[in-house]
C-alpha cells in the first residue's frame, strides 16, 4: 500500500482532532492532549502545527448570540476591537518573585539567555516575553525567581495590599498563582492561608511554594464554603481575597472554546455560587479589614451584579476605590484600569486577560 502524503494525513488528523474537541466534553487543551497521547505516531512538529491550527479555528468561530449581544451592549463600538483581540494568542507574562530577586536583575538574567523580554506596562513585578519560549530549564525558573502569571492577575493582587504581619486568606487559592504573589509581597512574614475546595489544585501549589522559598503558607482543602473549620477564623482576618470560580470568559484568547462551553444557565448558576462564597468568606474579615472579590469573567452578571448585591446586603462593608491601591503601588494610569470604582481589565484595552475586582473595608 502506498503511504498517504503527509498533508493529507495531517488533514485527517485535524478533522479527527476537531471532531473530538467539538463534542465539548472536555476543555480544548485537555481534549487535544488526550488525542495526542492516543496518537503517538504524530510527531512533535505536527502536534504543534495541529494545535496552532485548532486554536486559530476555535478563535475564528463566532460567539454564540447570547454572549455576543451581552458583550456588544457592554462595549458598544469597541466590540470590533475586542473581537480582533480575541483572534490572537495571549502574551506570555511572568511575575518576578520579589521575595528572592529584583525585576531588573531577573530581566537581565533572562536576556543573557537570549530571551526577548521587557517590563510589563502596569505591574511592578511583571515581565513580558516575546514568543513562547520554554521556561522550565531556565535557572531563574528552577530557582523560583519567576512564575508564569498574566499581568492582570498580578494587578488584582495589588488590590489586597497586605501588610507584612497580617493574617491573609486566599479563599479560592487553586494552584496558588495569587497566593504566591501575596506571600512574596508579605516577605514570608505574617500568615497566609490558602483555601480551596479542590485538594488536587492545592497539591499543585506545593512544588511552587518549595521553589518560591515561602514557608508561612498554610493550605486547607475545604468541604465547601461553610466548612465548620472556618469558624475559628471568623472576624480575625486582615485581608480576604475571593478569586471566585467563574465562566473564565476573560481568558478567551487562551481558551477560545469557552464561548461554546458556557451557557446563560451556567452563568446564572455561577453567579449564585459566587454570591454564596463571597458571603461566607466575608465572615472572616475583621473590623477594619479588607475584602476583595475578583473574577476573570467579562460579564456583569458575575461581576458588578454580584458585588452590588453583596454591598446592598452588607452595609458594614464600605466600598473602596480600586484605583487607590494601584496608585499606591506605583501603577501608571491606574484610573484607566478601573470603572465605577472597580478594577475592569480588557484584553483589547490593556493586553491582559479580562478581570474584574471589587474591594470593601469592613467598618472598624
Ligand atoms: C479562579 S479559580 C482560582 C485561581 C487561583 N486563585 C489562582 O490565582 O491560580 C477558582 C477556584 O475556586 C475554587 N472553588 C470552587 N468552589 C469553591 C468554594 N465553594 N470554596 C472555595 N473555593 C472554591 C475552585 O476549585 C478553583 O480553584
Automatic annotation (TrEMBL):
<dbReference type="InterPro" id="IPR023267">
    <property type="entry name" value="RCMT"/>
</dbReference>
<dbReference type="GO" id="GO:0008173">
    <property type="term" value="F:RNA methyltransferase activity"/>
</dbReference>
<dbReference type="GO" id="GO:0001510">
    <property type="term" value="P:RNA methylation"/>
</dbReference>
<keyword id="KW-0694">RNA-binding</keyword>
<keyword id="KW-0489">Methyltransferase</keyword>
<feature type="binding site">
    <location>
        <position position="243"/>
    </location>
    <ligand>
        <name>S-adenosyl-L-methionine</name>
    </ligand>
</feature>
<feature type="active site" description="Nucleophile">
    <location>
        <position position="296"/>
    </location>
</feature>
<dbReference type="Pfam" id="PF01189">
    <property type="entry name" value="Methyltr_RsmB-F"/>
</dbReference>
<dbReference type="InterPro" id="IPR001678">
    <property type="entry name" value="MeTrfase_RsmB-F_NOP2_dom"/>
</dbReference>
<dbReference type="InterPro" id="IPR029063">
    <property type="entry name" value="SAM-dependent_MTases_sf"/>
</dbReference>
<comment type="similarity">
    <text>Belongs to the class I-like SAM-binding methyltransferase superfamily. RsmB/NOP family.</text>
</comment>
<keyword id="KW-0949">S-adenosyl-L-methionine</keyword>
<dbReference type="Pfam" id="PF22458">
    <property type="entry name" value="RsmF-B_ferredox"/>
</dbReference>
<feature type="domain" description="SAM-dependent MTase RsmB/NOP-type">
    <location>
        <begin position="82"/>
        <end position="363"/>
    </location>
</feature>
<dbReference type="InterPro" id="IPR054728">
    <property type="entry name" value="RsmB-like_ferredoxin"/>
</dbReference>
<keyword id="KW-0808">Transferase</keyword>
<dbReference type="InterPro" id="IPR049560">
    <property type="entry name" value="MeTrfase_RsmB-F_NOP2_cat"/>
</dbReference>
<protein>
    <submittedName>
        <fullName>16S rRNA (Cytosine967-C5)-methyltransferase</fullName>
    </submittedName>
</protein>
<feature type="binding site">
    <location>
        <position position="196"/>
    </location>
    <ligand>
        <name>S-adenosyl-L-methionine</name>
    </ligand>
</feature>
<dbReference type="GO" id="GO:0003723">
    <property type="term" value="F:RNA binding"/>
</dbReference>
Amino acid at each position: 500500500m502506498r503511504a498517504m502524503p503527509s498533508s493529507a494525513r495531517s488533514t485527517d488528523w485535524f478533522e479527527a482532532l476537531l471532531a473530538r474537541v467539538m463534542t465539548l466534553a472536555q476543555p480544548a487543551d485537555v481534549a487535544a492532549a488526550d488525542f495526542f497521547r492516543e496518537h503517538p505516531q504524530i510527531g512533535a512538529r505536527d502536534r504543534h502545527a495541529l494545535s496552532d491550527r485548532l486554536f486559530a479555528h476555535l478563535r475564528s468561530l463566532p460567539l454564540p448570540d447570547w454572549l455576543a449581544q451581552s458583550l456588544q451592549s457592554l462595549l458598544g463600538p469597541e466590540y470590533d476591537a475586542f473581537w480582533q483581540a480575541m483572534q490572537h494568542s495571549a502574551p506570555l507574562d511572568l511575575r518576578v518573585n520579589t521575595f528572592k530577586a529584583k525585576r531588573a536583575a531577573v530581566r537581565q538574567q533572562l536576556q543573557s539567555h537570549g530571551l526577548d523580554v521587557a517590563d510589563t506596562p502596569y505591574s511592578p513585578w511583571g515581565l513580558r516575553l516575546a514568543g513562547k519560549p520554554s521556561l522550565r530549564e531556565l535557572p531563574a525558573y528552577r530557582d523560583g525567581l519567576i512564575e508564569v502569571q498574566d499581568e492582570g492577575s498580578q494587578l488584582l493582587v495589588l488590590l489586597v495590599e497586605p501588610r507584612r504581619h497580617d493574617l491573609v486568606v486566599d479563599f479560592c487559592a487553586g494552584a496558588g498563582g495569587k497566593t504566591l504573589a501575596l506571600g512574596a509581597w508579605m516577605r514570608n512574614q505574617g500568615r497566609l492561608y490558602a483555601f480551596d475546595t479542590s485538594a488536587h489544585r492545592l497539591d499543585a501549589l506545593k512544588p511552587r511554594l518549595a521553589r518560591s522559598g515561602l514557608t508561612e503558607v498554610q493550605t486547607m482543602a475545604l468541604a465547601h464554603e461553610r466548612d465548620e473549620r472556618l469558624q475559628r477564623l471568623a472576624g480575625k482576618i486582615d485581608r480576604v481575597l475571593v478569586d471566585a470560580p467563574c465562566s473564565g470568559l476573560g481568558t478567551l484568547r487562551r481558551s477560545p472554546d469557552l464561548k461554546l462551553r458556557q451557557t446563560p444557565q451556567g452563568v446564572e448558576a455561577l453567579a449564585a455560587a459566587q454570591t454564596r462564597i463571597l458571603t461566607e468568606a466575608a465572615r472572616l474579615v475583621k473590623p477594619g479589614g479588607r475584602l476583595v472579590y475578583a473574577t476573570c469573567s467579562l460579564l456583569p452578571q458575575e461581576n458588578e451584579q454580584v458585588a452590588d448585591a453583596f454591598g446592598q446586603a452588607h452595609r458594614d462593608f464600605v466600598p473602596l476605590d480600586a484605583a487607590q491601591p494601584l496608585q499606591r503601588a506605583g501603577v501608571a494610569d491606574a484610573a484607566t484600569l478601573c470603572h465605577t470604582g472597580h478594577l475592569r481589565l480588557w484584553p483589547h484595552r490593556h493586553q491582559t486577560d479580562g478581570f474584574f475586582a471589587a474591594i470593601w473595608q469592613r467598618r472598624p
